[in-house]
Amino acid sequence: MGLPCMNLTTAQLRYLIMIYQLQKNGRVRLLDVAGKLGVAKPSVHRMAVQLVRLELLEEGRFSVLQMTARGLEVAEAYEHGCILLHSFLQSELQLSSTDAQEGALALLGAYPLEKLRALCSKLEGPLSMIT
């Protein structure tokens, strides 16, 4: 699975992937995201506004967040890249799970998509043998 054709910041990725993961279990409220990320509800609202502008998210009634079809596609692709990079950083560099997660998000948010696609495609081979 390739990364989508849009660059997102590390912060946008952190929120988007968390909303995506929470949505797998049902509806997602601003408060749910705030609790999982350890941030204030207004911070989640500000980020939700950004993600709505990017057409990745819809904000429904009662502070319920819903991903758009495009948002689901983008989040799934970035989550896949994050999993690959997390596994590599944890196994090869002996980083803690938390540090590997932060490193994966930082890489996904900092590098051009072409470079990330190349890296993720190289990682898929060796990591698929591990899992």
Specify the helix fraction band.
55-70%
> Can you tell me the CATH superfamily of the largest domain?
Winged helix-like DNA-binding domain superfamily/Winged helix DNA-binding domain
Poorly predicted spans: 127-131
State the major sheet: 3 strands, antiparallel
Any chance you could write out the topology, listing elements then pairs?
Elements: H1 10-23, E1 28-29, H2 30-37, H3 41-53, E2 57-59, E3 64-67, H4 69-92, H5 97-110, H6 113-130
Antiparallel strand pairs: 1-3, 2-3
Helix pairs in contact: 1-2, 1-3, 1-4, 1-5, 2-3, 4-5, 4-6
Short note summarizing the structure:
The protein has helices at 10-23, 30-37, 41-53, 69-92, 97-110, 113-130, and strands at 28-29, 57-59, 64-67. With 131 residues, it is mostly helical.
Q: What this model shows, in words?
A:
Residues 25-58 form the HTH iclR-type domain. GO terms for molecular function: DNA binding. There is one protein chain. With 131 residues, this protein is mostly helical. The chain has two domains: 10-68, Arc Repressor Mutant, subunit A (Orthogonal Bundle); 73-122, no CATH class. It contains six helices and three strands, in the order αβααββααα. The chain has helices at 10-23, 30-37, 41-53, 69-92, 97-110, 113-130, and strands spanning 28-29, 57-59, 64-67. The protein has a three-stranded antiparallel beta sheet. α1 (10-23) crosses α4 (69-92), α2 (30-37) crosses α3 (41-53) and α4 crosses α6. The protein is globular and about 45 Å long. The two termini are 16 Å apart. The relative contact order is 0.17.
